[in-house]
Amino acid sequence: MDRPATAPPSAETVSSESLAAVVREYWGYDSFRPCQREAMESVLTGRDSLVVLPTGGGKSLCFQAPALAMPGVAIVVSPLISLMKDQVDALRACGAPAAYINSTLTTQQRHKVTEQLRRGELKLLYAAPERILMERTLSFLKTIDVSFVAIDEAHCVSTWGHDFRPEYTELGALKDALPGIAIHAYTATAAERVQGDIIRGLRLRDTNLLIGSFDRPNLIFRVRRATRKLDQIMSVIRRHQGESGIVYCISRKEVESVAGALKELGVRAAPYHAGMGDVARERNQEGFLGDRIDVIVATVAFGMGIDKPNVRFVIHAGMPKSVEAYVQESGRAGRDGLEAECLLLYGGGDAMLWRRIIEEGEPNILEGALHSLDEIVQYANSVGCRHQSIVGYFGQDLGRDNCGACDVCLEELQLAADPLATAQKIISCVARLDQRFGAGHTAKVLAGSRDQNLLSRGHTNLSTHGLLSKERMTTIRDWIEQLVGQGYLQRVGEYHVLQITETGREVLRGNTTPHLLAPAQGASRSRTQAADSWEGVDKRLFDQLRELRTKLAAEKQVPAYIVFGDTALRDMARRRPSTLEGFTQVKGVGEVKLRDYGDLFLKAITSHCAEQKIPTDTEATGDRETRRGSPDGNTAFQRYDHGTDDTPSPSAPALAAFKHFREGRSIAETAEILSRAKSTVVGYLGAFLKHHEVIDPTPWVDEATTRRVEQAIEEAGGETLKPIYEQLGGEVSYEEIRIVATCVANRA
Ligand code: ADP
Ligand code: ZN
Fold first, then answer.
1. Which ligand does the CA of 390 lie closest to?
2. What band does 677 get if pLDDT is binned at 50, 70 and 90?
3. Probe ligand 1: pick from 61, 589, 627, max atoms within 8 Å of CB?
4. 718-725 contacts: CB < 8 A, separation 24 or more?
5. What is the DSSP letter of 27?
6. Is the pLDDT of residue 639 over 50?
């Protein structure tokens, strides 16, 4: 078949209303995200475009929806096989005819795709650049009806980007090879230099440049100095038990040690770094995508190609190397638009470590890389709104004073009482030490340490010795870092000794006052715009639906989110539809998913509601998508069920026991595995039942006894255990009564 005309279908043939219909039909979404409509219309009108949207901004839909609406097949250039596979799986699960061609296909499979293309049966074809540019592929493409070319991860064309791929630089040839076919490029990289490289490299013409806001209002940003790293990491994981998260470490060694420690604490964690064998690495990645592994502990090698939308937290266990890198890495949280948290933990040595890595690397990027490092150090030590700092870095403005979703705006961090006097003490101590010592030594002097190192040098006699003796050592170290971060002190030479800068001298003269943070007295409750995404959600039903999802995904051998995203599951657990009609109202349910999964999920919903005696078919009250760009920040953030700041978090050994309880192990079994006394394990079980609001005691107390105790509670009242014990004639132990009573209380 000869391709009739090269002119792409125009806006007259495909209206933008039909885009909305496509988005509704295939994805079950009823609105566009910022910039999506403009980006899609640029595709319809056949004008080359470059779309810059942050990770999770919804770039894929910008080309997928028009591809479905327009005649012909869209060619999507994608850098990684895993990325292609996931996107194609996701498209097919929505009923969209898509395929990829790459080296993983057998000759037979490849022929099948070619045939489908000849018959015009595909709407999207994914391939890597080198495949598209093969003479054979190009001449074949000329014989079929190509609607447009989309270049995903377009920053790979730029040597300035973080993912330069030489094959991408050849893509400029497409303009000659496929004349008259528009090219649309997509990236999350905001640097202007990279945008210029993309436009030039791909030879885009009259480019429609669409740049979205770089703010991600559903992400809560926090920065903390690493003090007890593992505890700090665990406290985030505890808030998200059973949910997905990423912990980034600077070195492979740290990846291994953190992953190991988390596993010991009962977390379903696995490592990922370039030093591991391909098989192990892939297994861990697949496990993470399939929700069999909750937490992946990784170096920055982990990331591109991970489109998992339900990552609920990203923790940096060490400083990233630049703000750009931080935005990319932390941006992998909350792609689905639901709230997610990003915690950056940094230590004094991190910047030094990076400096060493950078100095050993490529000499011609040295200066730029060191500058980028300074910027992230500054970010970590700033006391301004984190959302504003990030968009400011990309030359944008947040347009509001309080983001409602960072540690600064949430007032979790308090300012130090007298920053000028404190800073003067620190800076004069640096002066007394002749600017010849590092931060650790300086902090010890200020804290009044009588350490041998100080004594032998006579530093205990300095006038600044003990000036900050009332403060904790870590606080003093923090302040020094903050002064470095704000440019009042600097580190120089091989030993990174502290030196006073010109502005630092101004502090000594009292002409300028630095910002210093005091660690908060107990964190305040977060308030975010993502507040109501749990509103009205039956958490237990949600958990059941998640299990069903995991099961179905395992059967189909696809990542869990391809069945349904978290947004869809929460909406189901909120609306609790009992009919197929009600089910179509659920966000994220398109026609094909309704057909494929509707009955199964309806059954799970209705039987849960009948069992728990809760109503079905409720009107959804919560916002269906996190309100983007419409800040109010006043709604209370719901910490759902995972422990609030008021309830103490379970200890590490308790958590290890929790894992066994989750797997239904008895008290005796758990006690044996953990080599703990039975009475200790009984205590852990009590905490477990409360923490997870368990309502069914039968894994630990037999059915008949449970019924008897429930009856006795009803008769004797559940206030104290003794009357229940007596009611039962002393035939049931206190231990068993307590377990049943806790579960009964959880049902209230
Ligand atoms: P990006 O490629 O920009 O990082 P994706 O295309 O992976 O982002 O989209 C992130 C998530 O947002 C996906 O789960 C996607 O299905 C969802 N999404 C995209 N557009 C919309 C929309 N208009 N409404 C609701 N969800 C959307
Ligand atoms: Zn803020």
1. 2
2. confident
3. 61
4. 718/744, 718/745
5. I
6. no
